[in-house]
Structure formats: C-alpha cells, structure tokens
Design a protein that fits this description.
Helix content is about 45%, strand content about 15%. A hairpin with a 6-residue loop joins β6 and β7.
Length: about 290
C-alpha cells in the first residue's frame, strides 16, 4: 500500500477549544493582528473568546475586520501592511473561508514587499508570518489547508496561492461557532465541503489514506444535507452542526493532497459572473 500524508497544523477541536488551549498562542509572540469579517466573528462568539485568551496570555492584539466575501488581493495587502506597522509576530484569522484565506495572503504581504503577480507566482523571498485559524463555518476546510483563494482587483477573477508556509500553525475547531449561521450559509458551505470530498475521492491523486477519510466524510455530509432539508425551518440541532464541521475539516485534508476537480473551476464562473454562493455554485456540477 502506497500513501503519503502531510499536515503541519496542530488541530485542537471540541467545544471551548480556544479558551481551553489558548496557552498555545504564547509561544508565537507578543503582538498579533486578528483578520476577520465585519460581523460573523462577533456573532459567533469566536472573537470574544480569542480576545479573552490574548488578554490572559498578555498578547497585544489589533483587529482588522474589513474582509468581505470573495476577498480582494488589495484587502489582503492592506491587512499585511497593518501587521507590519504594528510589528505583529503572528496573525489570527477568524471566520469562514474568506477571512481565513485573506489572512493567509496577509501573512505573506506582512513579510514581503511584492506585487500581486509575485504573490500568485509564489516568489516571496521571506517566510510569511505564522497563522492561527479559528473557523466559524463548516465548508471550506481552510483551517487545515495550504491554499488561499483570492479575487483579483479589477478583473474580479478567482486565483489561488498554495504553499506549505501558509499552513496555519494551529487550527481551533469548535462547532459552537457555527450555531449562529443562517440556513442559507449552512447549506451552501455544506455543499462546498461535499464538493471538496467528492472531488478529492475521485481524484487521480487520491490514495488509501485519502479514501479512508473521504468515504466517511461524503457519507456524513450526505446524511447531514438530507437532515437539513427535513428541518423545514426548525433550528439546526447541535449534533448536526458538529457533524457538518468535522466532515468539512476532513474534506479540507483532501484538498491539500488532491486539489479540486472540475466542479470548483466551473463553480468559480457562476460566482464571479452571476453572484451564486460558492458552495452552491460548485455543487451544481456534481452528479445529481
């Protein structure tokens, strides 16, 4: 049996993970920049947990909360420049795929005075700042990946960067942060996770380890999506939120190894040109 698996990210999971294992942050430095969106990190409770831990560990924190959906490269650059100005030792990304991916690129800009094209070329020179990821959606798996998908300024096209140096050093995986998500986002992000898992399983790069993770991930996501469909307006149960989040993280493991299949590139067109939410845009191209 031949297989390979590489994940330099320390994954800390379970309810209360940030407050329980927040002491890990003290080894990363004395000053950090928090990169997030305008509301989700606050509504989920993730931002207050992170700030409480940073205060306890006597780490100075500045919050950059200007990340929007489908983050622009210019936004990432702005965050990176802010990190340089405050002398940040590391960054903490809080949110779904957009803030986490933006934080990865911001970590690159914080240590490298480079053009947009050099960002995408991978010719960075200096190692990016360390990143801690705190996920608040169950879909992208960005908490555990070496990939960031960004939107170019002007053209509005999606492009990605990928490097071992932008793996988060720590990922806090607490399903409780997804409890405040509306059904539309819950469903779309679950479809994104299903696309990652299915595309990874059928990839020519897949191996025994990947298959062992993706088969249960696909089964779990299928069951969860059917359960969501049956709720008919009722609140999403806590157990279902947990199932969705952990399956999305498993799917993120596959994304590192296998990348994406044909669903994601086609889905980008629907998002870029017609504003279709990312997860739904990808899942449209899955077999019915």
């Amino acid at each position: 049996m031949e297989f390979s698996f590489f994940l330099p990210t320390r994954v800390v999971s379970g309810e209360g993970a940030v407050r329980r294992e927040g002491h890990l942050l003290s080894a990363l430095g004395e000053t950090c920049l928090i990169v997030t969106g305008r509301s989700a990190a606050k509504q989920s409770g993730a931002l207050s947990d992170v700030l409480a831990v940073l205060e306890k560990e006597e780490i100075t924190a500045v919050v950059y909360d200007q990340v929007m959906q489908n983050p622009l490269v210019s936004t990432c650059r702005e965050a990176g420049e802010m990190a340089m100005e405050i002398g940040a030792d590391f960054m903490i990304g809080i949110g779904g795929g957009s803030p986490l991916d933006a934080a990865k690129a911001a970590c690159v800009f914080a240590t490298n005075a480079i053009s947009d094209e050099e960002l995408f070329s991978g010719d960075w020179g200096s190692r990016p700042l360390p990143l801690v990821a705190v996920g608040t959606t169950a879909g992208t798996g960005s908490e555990v990946t070496r990939i960031a998908v960004l939107t170019t300024d002007g053209e509005g096209k999606k492009r990605s960067i990928s490097a071992d140096s932008i793996f988060p050093v720590i990922a806090y995986v607490d399903p409780r942060y997804t409890h405040s998500l509306p059904m539309s986002i819950t469903m779309s992000t679950a479809l994104d996770a299903l696309s990652h898992a299915a595309e990874g399983y059928f990839s020519s790069r897949s191996d025994a380890i990947n298959d062992a993770m993706m088969l249960p991930a696909i089964a779990s996501l299928e069951n969860s999506l059917r359960a969501l469909d049956r709720l008919d307006g009722e609140p999403v149960p806590k157990e279902l939120r947990s199932d969705l989040f952990y399956a999305s993280v498993l799917a993120g493991f596959s994304l590192n190894k296998c990348g994406t299949g044909y669903c994601h590139p086609l889905g980008y067109v629907l998002t870029e040109d017609f504003g279709v939410p990312h997860g739904l845009a990808c899942a449209i191209f899955l077999p019915s």
